[in-house]
Design goal:
With about 575 residues, the protein is an alpha/beta fold. It contains 15 helices and 25 strands. About 25% of the residues lie in helices and about 20% in strands. It has a 7-stranded mixed beta barrel with strand order 9-11-10-14-17-18-25, surrounded by 6 helices. Helix 7 packs across helix 8 (about 380-385), helix 9 crosses helix 14 (about 540-555) and helix 14 packs across helix 15. The longest helix has 19 residues, at about 540-555.
Length: about 575
């Protein structure tokens, strides 16, 4: 059997036999929490009543404890207990006042936005005294989770930070509150050794998530998505990309978080009109490194699901409440990405809970115009996918299915609740499972004041990995792009994620090791620093000379081998480099 022990240090599970004595329970608690510098007691009730004695004769079951029960630990000041006094009462009359507060888990550093929000008061101000000097009750500040305020502002979900404040706002300040991920499946021992039901996960009832980790998705300009959509416009094939950007405060939702999209990187993939297959991308780490140098991070993914309706730019609408918002495969993929990018959280038992990684779908709305819809899957969906027990159905994209147990994997029963035809809440087995139960939608928009932190105002230079439709990146296209900018605007030409990616990875002269000053210039949008880099980076000067040679070669012989600068004669390249060194 498993007994859960909640303490100021977090919650842990103690594995016991139902015939074990309470002394064994105390010893296992002692070793699990490493209680070597304090006195402590365990209680059956949260209010420190019904103490569990340290008895060698009384068994766990005779004390009234059963599988899955929660007991509560009180830690008190004192000297290091010996093995014979593991849970002896403290003799100090002031021991209760020295109870420790919950420890913040520091195994994973919190995101900067989380540290900022924890310092915020969070309360909503609603004006001060009237002109007559009378202060009305309606002017009192309210909590960020106030339901009437959220309903008035049409806010569907409270922010995750507001949810945490609500859970820690009671008299005990959330002393024993911890966020935990459940486990729905367990691998079985192939050796065939016996396992008791106490070793296996219990049945789970899913709940609709009332909070969300990200409250708004904002593209900092339209050119970002226009360049992304040009792939579909040119080929008719669907496309997927990773969103790079940063998180900031979202003022329209109390303690809310906004995901600001600065660039889209398209990984190596096989695109078709009705499917996308991701391939192993040898440059994935390079894209992450460039983003890190620019102060950005991977914050989500985006994919198209567009079917033309006519020749006037209209597209079909087939994602709506009557069909589906995300298919089962898309939900599973979103959960997989969210599990790969966990959210560091000080109130989580293992240091992480949920994710800020977002999903954006480009599809058709009810007016048959292209629209952008943002989503996240719930933490429960993340757990189901992490345990490999959620799979798609064969012919219904809006439904998922919980695997049944097999000799290799035990899957607990998973239930969800919905209203029947009489309006009553009924519990149903999640075979199948309506996927909308696992979704939280996120408003998605474009910035009113366009910025171009890591994107160009023109789409002259191609995005990465488009060779499949005949749109490769090349020195000729880079040269054409640079010619649109004067030296006074060099920073605007180079402040483009795709340009930086090509400079770092091109086959002619990769510049990654010499781009730190350029990254700093782009990060600060400083043209003087960009000019300094341009004049001092020898490899960049060499590349410029090669581009000049390439341009002249194109003018004299369009069909020349210079169409691909990577195939340029080695002696020619060396001659250019020597001439630059002499200068």
């Amino acid at each position: 059997m498993i007994i859960r022990v909640q303490s100021p240090q977090g919650t842990k599970r103690i594995d016991l036999d139902d015939k074990d004595s309470l002394k064994i329970l105390h010893e296992k608690v002692f070793h699990s929490f490493d209680l070597t510098d304090c006195f402590w007691h365990i209680y059956k009730a949260r209010n420190n009543k019904q103490q569990v004695p340290n008895s060698a004769t009384q068994t766990v079951t005779s004390c009234g404890l059963k599988h899955g029960d929660m007991i509560y630990m009180q830690i008190m000041g004192g000297s290091t207990p010996s093995s014979s006094t593991i849970a002896q009462p403290s003799t100090s009359q002031n021991s209760i006042s020295s109870v420790k507060t919950p420890q913040i888990v520091k195994s994973v550093p919190e995101d900067e936005i989380d540290r900022v929000l924890w310092k915020e008061d969070g309360r909503i101000r609603r004006g001060g005294p009237s002109s007559s000097g009378i202060f009305k009750m309606d002017n009192l500040s309210i909590e960020p989770w106030d339901e009437s305020y959220l309903k008035e502002k049409e806010i569907k979900f409270i922010s995750f930070h507001a949810y945490m404040r609500k859970q820690t706002a009671g008299a005990d300040k959330g002393k024993y509150f911890r966020l935990e991920n459940f486990k729905a499946a367990s691998a079985l021992d192939s050796s065939g050794s016996k396992r008791t039901v106490y070793n296996l996960p219990s049945a789970v009832t899913l709940n609709r998530q009332k909070y969300r980790f990200v409250d708004n998705i904002m593209f900092e300009n339209r050119e970002i998505v226009d360049r992304f959509l040009n792939f579909w416009r040119s080929s008719g094939y669907q496309r997927m990309g990773y969103l790079y950007g940063k998180y900031s405060m979202h003022p329209e939702v109390p303690l809310g978080i906004k995901a600001e999209v600065t660039a889209i990187y398209e990984p190596l993939q096989v695109s078709k009109s009705d499917s996308i297959k991701l391939l192993t991308d040898p440059n994935a780490d390079l894209a992450n490194k460039i983003a890190e140098k620019l102060g950005l991070q991977k914050i989500g993914w985006i994919f198209t699901d567009l079917v033309p309706l006519d020749n006037e730019g209209k597209v079909k609408n087939f994602r709506n409440p009557n069909t589906h918002f995300l298919s089962a495969e898309e939900c599973i993929t979103a959960a997989h990405f969210q599990n790969m990018h966990p959210n560091p959280c000080r109130l989580a038992s293992d240091g992480t809970f949920g994710s800020k990684f977002v999903t954006v779908v480009v599809t058709g709305d009810k007016e048959n115009s292209i629209t952008f819809e943002g989503y996240q899957v719930s933490t429960q969906c993340m757990s189901l996918v992490a345990d490999d027990c959620l799979i798609p159905t064969l012919d219904a994209p809006e439904l998922g299915y919980i695997k049944e147990s097999s000799p290799e994997l035990f899957v607990a029963d998973v239930y969800y609740k919905e209203k029947d035809e009489y309006g009553n809440q009924v519990q149903k087995l999640a075979r199948p499972l309506p996927l909308e139960y696992l979704l939280t939608d996120i408003s998605t928009a474009f910035s009113k004041e366009s910025k171009h932190s890591a994107s160009s105002k023109t789409d002259e230079f191609q995005a990465c990995n488009r060779e499949s439709i005949g749109h490769p990146q090349s020195l000729q296209k880079l040269s054409a792009h640079l010619k649109k900018f004067s030296p006074a605007n060099l920073i605007d030409a180079l402040s483009d994620f795709h340009v930086l990616f090509f400079l770092a990875s091109n086959d002619t002269i990769p510049l990654l090791s010499e781009m730190d000053l350029l990254f700093e210039a782009v990060k600060k949008h400083d043209n003087e620093t960009a000019l300094t880099w341009s004049s001092t980076c020898e490899s960049w000067s060499t590349l410029q000379e090669i581009m000049k040679h390439t341009d002249s070669g194109m003018q004299t012989s369009p069909a020349s081998h210079l169409d691909n600068p990577a195939n340029m004669d080695a002696e020619m390249r060396e001659a250019i480099e020597r001439s630059l060194q002499v200068q």
